[in-house]
């Protein structure tokens, strides 16, 4: 009898917890103009439907011997297109853009070497030489941090190394591309300047021309930041909707260069991703979101989803590291810390096209 009562109480508590969670993730429109009883019924109906979906997902995971767990998440509040929004260029356009950027980077490096030779000839007291040497010193300090990462290691990630900024939430706006650009830039800025930052995704959404709440591509953000600095989050807070670009005061948040991990429109190999992670820091990247991914709670996400090819992706994320024992990359998402493992996920090397269109970015030193 006691065991029955305990089970009954446990079941009631579980239901109450589910209702509370669902109340927090229900669309706000559901409660506007509704009576208490209508709201209560809507919650109960949503609870029943979501719990049924969750059980179906758990059965699918069990049947397919997958290695991850699912739960009710904040991301399940939204339709998939509201929390994804990545619009990659065509494979031909991506290859053309990647080759253009590779040529630009080659010219930039040649110019940097020319300047080094020129500065070596200048007098030690020359102000321009002093400024150049100070900048070189900062770059060397950043490179010493990058040297902590070895592509030959079995595992490494920039989160545990302490150079990732906090997980954020794009809400119901398809601006993942902006959050991906911000997170990758902030990671490199942290490494190169030993300083955390919080750049404005809203300004990236409004000013860069790289996309909208209906989707976009992060490369345009990095190009924009070559010439114009991005404000801080406090100067232009995120609103999850398109607005008018506002001229902001100058900040140190600009890029020196950016490029693709590879110049072909295929999935980069794990070696190519690891090398780029160690050379530049966190990478802007992509994957294909499915309903299972929306409900991801932990473990190694190794779903073998039906894909049309390597460019079949719909969401921007940041690759922060890898672990060969898991056979997975550590990725940072933009769906709040409620999702996944505090906003992160381990995604299998060969799962859901993770890594397609990966880009590195180099920030200016302060």
What does this entry look like structurally?
With 366 residues, the protein is of the alpha+beta class. It folds into 2 domains: 64 residues; 273 residues, Cathepsin B, Chain A, CATH 3.90.70.10. The protein has 9 helices and 11 strands. Strands 1, 2, 6, 7, 8, 9 and 10 form a 7-stranded mixed sheet that branches. β3 and β4 form a beta hairpin. α1 crosses α2. The longest helix is centred in the first third of the chain and has 30 residues. The protein is globular and about 80 Å long. The termini are far apart. About 1% of the residues have low confidence.
Largest sheet: 7 strands, mixed
CATH class of the largest domain: Alpha Beta
CATH architecture verdict of the largest domain = Alpha-Beta Complex
Tertiary shape = globular
Task: Give the domain tally.
Answer: 2
Q: State the CATH superfamily name of the largest domain.
A: Cysteine proteinases
The radius of gyration computed from the alpha-carbon positions, rounded to a whole number of angstroms, is 23 Å
């Amino acid at each position: 009898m006691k065991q029955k009562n305990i089970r009954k109480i446990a079941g009631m508590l579980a239901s109450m917890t589910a209702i509370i969670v669902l109340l927090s993730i229900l669309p706000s429109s559901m409660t506007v103009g509704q009576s208490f009883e209508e709201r209560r019924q809507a919650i109960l109906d949503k609870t029943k439907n979501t719990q049924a979906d969750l059980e179906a997902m758990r059965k699918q995971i069990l049947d397919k011997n997958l290695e991850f767990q699912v739960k009710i998440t904040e991301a399940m509040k939204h339709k998939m297109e509201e929390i994804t929004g990545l619009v990659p260029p065509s494979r031909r356009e991506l290859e053309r853009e990647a080759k253009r950027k590779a040529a630009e980077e080659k010219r930039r490096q040649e110019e940097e070497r020319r300047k080094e030779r020129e500065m070596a000839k200048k007098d030690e007291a020359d102000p321009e030489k002093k400024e150049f040497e100070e900048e070189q010193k900062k770059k060397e300090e950043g490179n010493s941090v990058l040297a902590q990462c070895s592509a030959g290691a079995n595992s490494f990630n920039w989160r545990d190394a302490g150079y990732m900024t906090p997980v954020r939430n794009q809400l119901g706006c398809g601006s993942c591309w902006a959050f991906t650009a911000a997170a990758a830039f902030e990671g490199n800025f942290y490494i190169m300047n030993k300083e955390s930052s919080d750049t404005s995704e809203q300004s990236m959404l409004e000013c860069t021309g790289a996309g909208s709440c209906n989707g976009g591509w992060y490369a345009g953000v990095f190009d924009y930041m070559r010439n114009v600095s991005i404000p801080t989050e406090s100067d232009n807070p995120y609103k999850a909707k398109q607005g008018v670009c506002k001229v902001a005061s100058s900040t140190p948040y600009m890029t020196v260069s950016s490029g693709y991990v590879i110049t072909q429109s295929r999935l980069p190999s794990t070696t190519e991703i690891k090398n780029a992670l160690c050379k530049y820091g966190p990478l802007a990247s992509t994957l294909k979101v499915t309903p299972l991914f929306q409900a991801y709670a932990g473990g190694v996400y190794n779903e073998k989803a039906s894909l049309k090819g390597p460019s079949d992706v719909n969401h921007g994320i940041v690759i922060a590291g890898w672990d060969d024992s898991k056979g997975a990359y550590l990725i940072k998402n933009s769906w709040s810390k409620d999702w996944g493992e505090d906003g992160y996920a381990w995604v299998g090397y060969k799962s859901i096209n993770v890594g397609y269109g990966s880009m590195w970015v180099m920030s200016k030193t302060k």
